[in-house]
Amino acid sequence: MIGEFDLVGVFLPELLVWMLVTYCIQFFVGKGLARAGLYRHVWHRSVFDLALYIVLLGLVVFVSHSFSIG
């Protein structure tokens, strides 16, 4: 069964919610990496940010399903 979230009668796909959560996490992680100076050593920042987002999305989905009941 496909997971959905009920937001005041509007059903949102589970993946959409996890993607929004991951975007917020990636925003703060990206700011931390920029402050630490890591981006000076990265060849293509956009590709690095995309890869970081995909890894973080995988972690968020894995953690959410690890703590789900049923």
Can you walk me through this structure?
- The protein is 64% helix and 11% strand.
- The chain has 70 residues and is mainly α.
- It has a domain at 35-63.
- It has a two-stranded antiparallel ribbon.
Write the layout of secondary structure elements.
Layout: E1 4-7, E2 10-13, H1 14-36, H2 45-66
Antiparallel strand pairs: 1-2
Helix pairs in contact: 1-2
Keywords for this structure?
single chain; 70 residues; mainly alpha; 2 helices; 2 strands
Summarize this entry quickly.
This protein is mainly alpha-helical and 70 residues long. The protein is 64% helix and 11% strand.
Relative strand content: 5-15%
Low-pLDDT runs of 5+ residues are: none
Large-scale geometry: elongated
The largest pleated sheet is described as: 2 strands, antiparallel
Number of DSSP helical runs: 2
Distance between the termini: 12 Å
Q: Would you tell me the overall average pLDDT?
A: 91
Quaternary state, please?
single chain
Helix and strand run:
EEHH
Helical proportion, percent range: 55-70%
- Rg over C-alpha atoms, rounded to the nearest angstrom: 15 Å
Kindly report the spatial arrangement of strands forming the biggest sheet: 1-2
Protein name: DUF1656 domain-containing protein
Pfam family, one: DUF1656
InterPro entries: DUF1656 (IPR012451)
Transmembrane segments: 15-34, 46-67
